[in-house]
TrEMBL record:
Residues 339-504, 511-676 form the Polyphosphate kinase C-terminal domain. This is Polyphosphate kinase. The gene is ppk1. The keyword ATP-binding applies. One of its GO terms (molecular function) is polyphosphate kinase activity. Mg(2+) binds at residues 383, 413. Keywords: ATP-binding, Kinase, Magnesium, Metal-binding, Nucleotide-binding, Phosphoprotein, Transferase. The lineage of its organism: Bacteria, Pseudomonadati, Bacteroidota, Cytophagia, Cytophagales.
Amino acid sequence: MLINKVSDQIKKSKYISRDLSWLRFNYRVLDQARDTNKSFFDRLKFLAITSSNLDEFFMIRVGSLYNYLDYGKERLDYSGLRELPFRKKLLDYAHRFVNDQYLTFNSEIKPLCEKHGFDILKISELTEIEQKKVDSYFKNTIYPMLTPMVFDNYHGFPLLMNQLLTFGVVTRTTEEQKAQDRVTFVQIPQNLARFYELNRKDKIVFVPIEEIVRWKIKKLFRNVDIVSVNLFRITRNGDFTLEESDDLEADFVQEIKSKLKTRKKGRVVRLEIERNPSQFMLKVLKERWTIDNANIFTINNLIDLRCLWQIINHRQFKDKGFKQPSSVSPLSLPSDGVDMFEYLKDHDVLLHHPYNSMEPVVSLLERAAEDPAVLGIKQTIYRLADQSRVTAALLKAAENGKHVSVLFEVKARFDEERNLREGERLEKAGCFVIYGISKYKTHTKMMMVIRKEGEKVTRYVHIGSGNYNEQTARLYTDVSLLTTNEVYAHDVSEFFNVITGHSRPNDYKYLMTSPKDMRHDLIELIRHEAKNAKKGLKSGIVIKINSLEDKEIIDEMYKASKAGVPIKLIVRGICCLRPGREDLSENITVKSIVGEYLEHARLYYFHNNGEPKVYGGSADCMVRSFDRRIEALFLIANEELKRESINILYYNLLDNQNSYIMREDGTYVKKRALANEEVVDVHKIFYSKSYVEALVAELV
C-alpha cells in the first residue's frame, strides 16, 4: 500500500523529480552501451561513462539530499515527497540501475572481450609463467605501497579515501582463551594502474590489481588467521551548498582550498561491496558511517567500471572506436586561411562545434598574444584542457606587455585545483586574475581582444555555450559567435566591468544575463508567444538545453501551452516538465538526444509572429543558472547566422537515430525512423554542406 501511495503521489505532481529524471538520463547513456550497431569499444566507453556519471550523482545529488537529512532541514522534492520517502525511492531506483548496468556488462559485454583481442582474468586463469610475472610485480611495485590499518580497541577508525578500492580484512586472534575478531583496512593506491597487463600471442590479458592483492593478502597478515577478505569502495558527500560562505569579505581562494580538503572527510553516501561480505565487517561499517542497506550496493563483478578506460585507451585499441570525421569550415567563414582580424571587421562568424573546429578561436587568441597592435585581452575561464593552448597564449600576451584580465571560476566542480594552479601561473606572469565572484559561480563563456587599428580601437568578441577547452570541443556540441559588432562589444565590455569591478550596467541590447534579469526576460518572451497565440497570430517556442528544472519557467510554459503555443523542447539530461498532460501541457513535446557527442549547446527560439528571436549561450533553465550563477545568453542578430541556428534546431528535431521521446510519466522511448522516413543522424549531417539547402522559414 505504501509503495502505491508513493507512486500515486509522484504521478499527481505536475513536475518530474530532478534526481529521478537524471537517473533516467543515465539509462539513456547505458542504452548506448547496449547498442549492437556501435563498435564494441564505443560500447565499453559508454559503460564507463555511466559509472563516472553515477559517481558524480552520488557525490553531489545524493550528497545534497544528505545535507538536508543530516542537518535536520526539510526538503520537498518536485515529486511531492519529503526527505525520507524520497531517499527510499531514489536509492531503490539507483539499485535497479546498478543491477541493469552489471547485467549489461556481465551478459552483453564481458562475453565479447576475447573476440576483440583481450580478456579480463583472475589469477587462477593465468599460466604458471604469467603468475610468476604477476608475483614479481606485486613484490616490487604493489607490496611496498600497501598499508594495513587496523581498527580495534587500541586503534581509531582510519580515514578511508573517497572512491578508492579498499579491502576489509577480518582477522581472528585468541587472547586469554577468548576469540576476538577485528577488521583491518588495506586501500589500493590510486596511482597504480587498475589492471596489470600481460601479452599473450593472440590477445592482451588484463589482471585486476585487486585480484593480485587478494592473492597475496597473507603477506600483510603473518601468523594471523584471516576469516574473510572483502573488497569495497565508498563514495562520500561532495556537495558544499550548505557550507558556502555568504561573507563577501572572506578570502575566497583560501575558502575553496579548505573545501577541497573536506571532500576527504565527507559523510559516506554509498558503499559498493562484493558479494557475500563479512557480516561482522558490514556491521562495523554501518555503525561507523550511519548507513543502512539502502546505501549498500552489492556488485557482481568489477567494482568501479571507470576502469574500462584503461582498456579503451590502450594503444592497441585506441583506433577501434568511433572515428571522428574531419571538421568542416563554418558556413559563415569561407576558408581556414582567412585573416580573422580583417574578416571579422565585416562579418560575424557562427561556430558549431565539433563540426567546426575551435581553431579559429584559439588561433585568434594566439595571434592576439603576439600582435603589437593588441592592447588587451579579457576572458572568463570555467574548464581548461590539459596543457592548454589558451593558458599558454594568455601567458605569452602578459609577457609581451599586454593587459590581460582573466576570471578563473574556482568553483568549477572537480576542476578547482587545476583552475587555482593555472590562475596562480597567470598571476605570476602579471595578469589580473579574479577567482570567482563571491557566492556566484561564473559559468558564462566570453572573450574580448582589444586592438588598436589606426585612430580607433576595435573589440573582437567571442561568446558561446562551450568551455575554452580544446579537448572537449571535439566531443561536445556547442555554438559560439565571433564578432566585432559594436553592440555586442559594448554589452560584453559592460559585462566584464560587472564581473571584474562593481559596475551596475544599464540594460543590455543583445545580452540576457543572470543572476539579474535572465529568468524575467525568458518569461517575458514566453508570455509574448502566449499573447500572440491568444490573438490568433502564429506562435511557437523551440528550446535546446542540457537541463530544464526551474519551476517558474516550467509554469510559464504550461500557461503558454494552454494558450495554444506549440512548444518543442530538446533537453539532453534533466527535465522536470511533464509533456503531453491533458489540460496542462498538451502542446509540449520533449526529446533527448544522446549519442556520439555530448549535446552541450543551448539555443532558444521564439517565433515572434514570423520575426524570430534566437539566443545562444551558456545557461540552462535551472534555478542555479538564474539565481546562483553568472550566465549570459546572446541574441543572434545577424540574419544569415540566425537562419543557420534555426537549421541547427530544425535538424535536432528531425533526428531519428539518437533521439528519445519523453512520455507524460517521465519515461523515455527510443525514436526510430519509420519505413518511409529518411534517416537523419544529427551527429553526421552537420559535416555535410547539404543541410544548408533546407531553407527553414519557421520551426513551429
